[in-house]
Protein: Putative restriction endonuclease
Organism: Brevibacterium marinum
Amino acid sequence: MVEPNGLRETAISWLEMRTDGGRDPLTRDEIQDFEFDGEQFKLQSTQQGIRKPAGFSAALSIQTVFRRPGQERPYEDVIGDDGLLRYMWRGNDPTFPENVGLRNAMEQKLPIIWFWGVGMQPARFQVIAPVYVVGEEPNEQRFLLTATEPAADISEIDFSAHEFVAKRYLTRMAKVRVHQPVFRATVLTAYENRCAVCNLAHPSLLDAAHIVADGDEKGIASVVNGLAMCKIHHAAFDRYFLGVRPDYTVEIRHDLLEEVDGPMLRHGLQEIHGQKLMTVPKVRQDRPQADLLKFKYDEFRTAAKLDVV
Ligand SMILES: [Zn+2]
């Protein structure tokens, strides 16, 4: 069967709706629910990373399998200083149908879907769509992709004339559309959608807080540098009203402990002083790394004008 008209666009809109605008990760089963013209249509490959349905000239989707911290596969998802994302060929033969399919998607400027594993049991995927294949590095056996705004026409980006601007734009898009949502989904999945501090269980009120800030060189985008936190605890953590010791004990800044105010201050902050985190990931490798907590906790002590321990 040749690719039916409108299938790609319909699939991308359906995923947008099913993920609440790209926020919620989906299981394989949920992705399998997609129908086109009244029939189930498979969007995601079960075996390889690249899905090129039989008869289609261009690939439809790619996937990155979830890896626990310490099991990251090198080269697969690095953003180069050109702001482009990398995706490895299938195997090492450029003529494999899946590799040809991605090359054809590039030539035809077709949007594709990236399923990015963010958790296991069951496997969950962050959906990033559309993304575009814009180049290939045959010596490295990989493709180059961009995650521009859905509305942006990539053919209008003039890479030669405004190289610096284009690189900055692409780097920003890769962060906003790929790395930040993947980090958020990975952290929230590991914490089973609960605030580490207070256990609040509403994803729309939760963030993935970086322990060491994103801009810092230690501030890696890995679950071990993350804590799922509700909005108020996240803000309190970032602004040093709240600190977390490497043994997971929560501390509230001493001047706040003496303040008298309403229930948010009393229950939300003062009463958790000295308590342990209520939720940490079940899987040990996903838990916050002690040296990162220590780094942030020392900053908290400094900000609270206490001696650094
Ligand atoms: Zn909370």
About this structure: The first helix runs from residue 7 to 18. Residues 195, 197-198, 200, 229-230, 233 surround zinc ion (CB under 6 Å).
